[in-house]
Fold this sequence. Notes:
ubiquinone biosynthesis; 9% strand; 10 strands; transmembrane; 24 helices
Amino acid sequence: MEALRGPHNIVRLIRTGATLERTGAMPVILDAFRAPPTVRWVLRGLCRPFAFLGYKGDPEMPPATRALTALGPAYIKFGQIMSTRPDVVGDELATQLRVLQDKLPPFPVREALRMVEEELEQPVDAIFSEFSEPVAAASIAQVHKARLRETGEAVAVKVLRPGIERAFRRDVDAFYLAARIIDLLAPQARRLRPMDVIEHFDGVVQGELDLRLEVAAGAEYAEVTKDDDGFRLPTVHWFLSGRRVMTQGWVDGISAGDVMAIEAAGHDRYALGERVLRLFLNHALRDGYFHADMHHGNLKIAPDGALVAYDFGIMGRIDEYTRRVYAEILFGFIRRDYRRVAEVHFEAGYVPPDRDVDEFAQALRSVGEPIFGMDASRISMGRLLSYLFEVTERFGMETRTELILLQRTMVVVEGVARSLNPQINIWKVAQPEVQAYVTRYVGPRALARDLVRTARVLSRFGPVLPEIAESALIAARDRRVTPSVRVENAAPAAIVFVAAAGGAAVGLLAGALLLAALL
Length: 519
């Protein structure tokens, strides 16, 4: 694999540890994660001799922010996620990391103007009557406030950082090497599939580095959420956007991270905290398309109290089958039906079939029961996640790479909701949304809808169904296999035979019903 070539990746990993040590971030991070004494001794013993190789960073920044900023965009992304979880990393470290969301050092405006002209192939003055200094600077891009010359509309112009593609490639290459080392030296961690995790992360970030994809994502997201009360998105400008530049409507409002300003403006921050969670669950379960970078820096509270989301560089998709599985798991936890939660894990293949379902249900009970009847401020999410990890390791569960984005976003969204409403109980808030999804998409209604969709698919093959049926029956005869011997071999022939013989919707529906019965 390309990412594993060259000694520069080894140097990069050594420099990572050295930077954490030189900036003073190593003890801060180890304290925040409550690392055991042995781990502290090993890590600091390995990194201290190489501290002189570490990046110095900005001495005016707090240690952790200083280290991650000096190390580059991939590390900054990690810091952004942790800034929303004071219950995991502690209030002090979370506060330090919060500046990573949109308060990083900007690059010069003249460089941004040059990139805008190159990307849009027009003089900046011909497009904009005003173009401000940077108003926000994040790990991958920065934003300028501008005004369209033709209409006078206020817009936000997002411009990628110069050389960001190469910088991110360097970081991700080192992550690939770290994943390979884990694979080789820590066999017990292979179930986490570290190489697949990094490949997934790599793919997501590469999409974020092409702003044309972000424009398309914003338009699609606006379409599927247009009927959501109290939720808005800025308008995207297709013809003033390109690979490295994106233009969208300007958003006025208060940052979701400024709790004092939200209260001073008269907004109900407790209701806002619940709305953030409910909207995310709706988008993930109902639509299968959700904002996957929903931290404080990408959310504003409009003057009318609406929640406004922007920055659509990372969006997540979940197929319908997976949405149903996760809805059943969530609903089982809400109802405290741990046996059903365990069964769903086995049915979906998340747990190896040779494990005991009753033991797994008991382990899930030990994770879920402490949550009920408690407000969020009394739940240590750090201890909960630690114990859940032990449970999954014990039962041989592998990392589901297709769900990494969903799981990561849930962590971020819960952190945002908790900052607005420290007493929020995620299970109570989630219950009506999950129950509504289960009622509609799991059970008799969903079965009837699936059968109709199956009938429609079969109907498109109506003209060729007789030929398919004849071929299947001839093949079965030649193999001397009758329907009474092996049901699974008879299923395709029986289905097409029923559909072909019926000819109309009744025959097709009968074929779909037979398929459901056989499978």
